Amino acid sequence: MVSPVVLLAVPLGLALCVPLVGMASRKAAGFVPVAASLFNLVVSVGLLPDALEEPIVANLGGFAPPFAITLFAGPVGVLLSALVALAGLAVSLYALSYISEGPTIRYHTLYTLLLVGATGVVLTGDVFNLFVFFEILCISSYALVAYVGDRAGTEASIKYLIQGALGSALLLIGIGLLYGLFGTLNMADIAARMGSVDPGPVFVAMVLIITGLGVEAAIFPLNAWLPDAHSSAPSSISAMLSGIAIEVGLYAVVRMVFTVFGASSMLMFLVFMGFLTLLVGELCAFAQSNIKRMLAYSSIGQMGLIVFALALATVHSVTGGLFQLVSHTLSKALLFLAVGYMVYRSGSMEISSLEGMGRRMPLTSFAFTVGAFSLVGLPPFIGFPSKFLIVRSALAEQGVLLQVLVGLLLAATVVEGAYFLRVIQTVYFKKGRQQEARREAPAVALFSMFVFVVLIVVIGVYPNLISNALESGASELLERADYVRSVLG
Amino acid sequence: MSFLHDYVYYIGAFGLVAVGLLILLVKRNLIKLIIGLSILDTGVNMLLISVGYITGGTAPIFSRPGLSEGGMVDPVPQALVLTAIVIGVAILALALGLAVRFYKNCGTLDLRTAKELKW
Predict the structure, then answer these.
(1) Residue A48 near chain B (CB below 8 Å)
(2) What domains sit in chain B, N to C, each tagged with a CATH number?
(3) CB within 8 Å: B47 and A176
(4) Which residues in chain A land under pLDDT 50?
(5) Is B90 on the interface with A (CB under 8 A)?
(6) Comparing C-alpha atoms, which of A197, A319, A257, A214 is closest to residue A480?
């Protein structure tokens, strides 16, 4: 069994090798992120059976747990790092053909660093280390949003950077307060001592930390940057931001609330915030005429749904939330990848310019349709079992209020269905003004899209493939005492 | 006065944070916003340092003779601040780079002209 440290060390080393490889051959540089994410995928999947049995804890530097920086590779961490690597692999293959102009070598370096940051956040067991990996993730995404260097990209990147940097500052203040209160930075150690200090200052620290992380997790009202950043970035980066970055931010929020603070009083508040995020996201998405902005708002809505499910804090609802997280990563990454080439061929991001795409790019349009149906939650795609789990677990809870919320949540899904079906109608059933020759996306891009299509259908038909792992992930998040025991012994 | 004496570093740190936040909220010039971010960062770093600082304390070198337990400063926050400074510099550099690009695209640094994207 390998140590989880290699999941961070190897991609980080490879990221710094990209410029060297690029000196030898510009084309070869694009294969470095492919290699890095393939390595991470293989190692994560290899670690998964062990991690499901018992969380793997690695202490860096050989110190004892409260003093060392701990890497905690439990079921959630390993699953998410596998998901990051999988999406990273498919998107880096797509980028081989999609990113052909501009400073490509810098793109591949930053992209690999983004993967390192995301993997680090999900694996770390130390609050300051979390901040550092979070910053690696954020800074590389600020830079990648502005990759094209046009007016919209620069503007979006500036908005993202200012809001993100403000969030990080709040997070760091929160971490400083935590260190002042507990004298330790180890998550398990803090969790173990939570009962021994005055709850007032802890609450202040928690609010600062959740607000800081909430900016990246796009929880309403901290998500003003998201539609701009996700729609102005190159499509491969939009796929990573929507599929990986916000999920990782959300994971950090959940880990803090559940494991470190054990704050059951915050949960009902988060349920409402999740619900509001869902409503705002879906309603704004409905009003968009720009396809990438529509997808970006739909990401906000989906994040709201995931927050809603996770904050209900029962084993079934957290399993449903994690399932929805996986489903959103696969579906939204696929949608952005498909839209990337559709927009490239039509030359405009307006939905109306996609008329007749079903004939011009049948395979890409098919991939888009699969992603859209999965996101809406139609069987036999992965979105169906995940939404079903969430609704079922929410209805199992007592209380009229929650049942009303579930009703409104289903109504929001109808809105979601409406705007996706409108796009699909435009793509397939409206004839373009001028008939253009059929021209598909390049083979390697189609391959990466169909990786997602196959996964969406296979997991949708056999949800049991991952539901066991997700369930042990859910119990890892909910059982604080087990977390503390496995780190501190 | 003893309150002021005991908490002077915290007051200074939160004062800097407040100044930074105010600049971020009020100013519309991109360079001024970046200056605000930088002040905010400095305030946060100072807060971290003051968490572990003891008045008159010195570095915790155990081999040094005559060093009592109460005279040593906690070294962990200082290590954290070193990391935070490096991260702050990275953000600052990126932000200034974006400001240059913004100026080239728009011919101004006034963010009120940045209305390409909205809700």
Answers:
(1) no
(2) 2-55+72-113 (1.10.287.3510)
(3) yes
(4) none
(5) yes
(6) A257
